[in-house]
Amino acid sequence: MRALIALLAMLMTAGLALAEDQQPLPAALPSISPGMTIDQVVAILGEPEKIADLGSKQIYVYKTLRVTFVDGVVPPVADSTVTGTKAVDPLRYEIGLGGLVAVSAAFLLGRMSRPANKVPPALPVQPQNPVRPTNLIRRLDELEQLMDLGILTPEEFESEKDKLRNLA
Hints:
3 strands, rod-shaped, about 45% helix, 5 helices, single chain
C-alpha cells in the first residue's frame, strides 16, 4: 500500500514537473494563408522536418502542421488537399494523464485488497458408508483364514469382526 502511494506521489510530481517545463504558447501563432509560396511559408515556419514531393503537389511536414502546396502555392482553404493538425493542448493532455493514473491506481488498490489466488473453502468430506458384504458369514470365514495364515493378528481380527457386527 505504501509503495502504491509513493508511486502515485512520484507520478504526480513528474506531471507537475512536465507542466512547469512547458514553454508558454506564443501570443500570436504565425499564420499561413492561401496563395503563399513555398519560400514565404519556409520564411515563417522554418525548414520542414519532411517534404513529400508528389509532382505538382508537395507536402511540407512540420512538428504540429502539414502544409500542402499545389503548383508551388498554398491552395484555397476550401480545397480538400489542405490539411493541418493542431498542437496538443497541454491542459487536456495533463487531465487525460491524470485520469489514467487515477484509474490505474484504483485498479491496483483493488487487486491489493484481495488475495491473488483465493480458493473457496473446501467442503467437509463425508465418509462414505462401506459396502455391506452380501454374506457376513463368508466374510468372517475369510477373516479367520487370514488370521490362521498369520496375515491378521488376533486384535485385527477382533476389530474387523466388530466392524461387521456394526454393519448388521
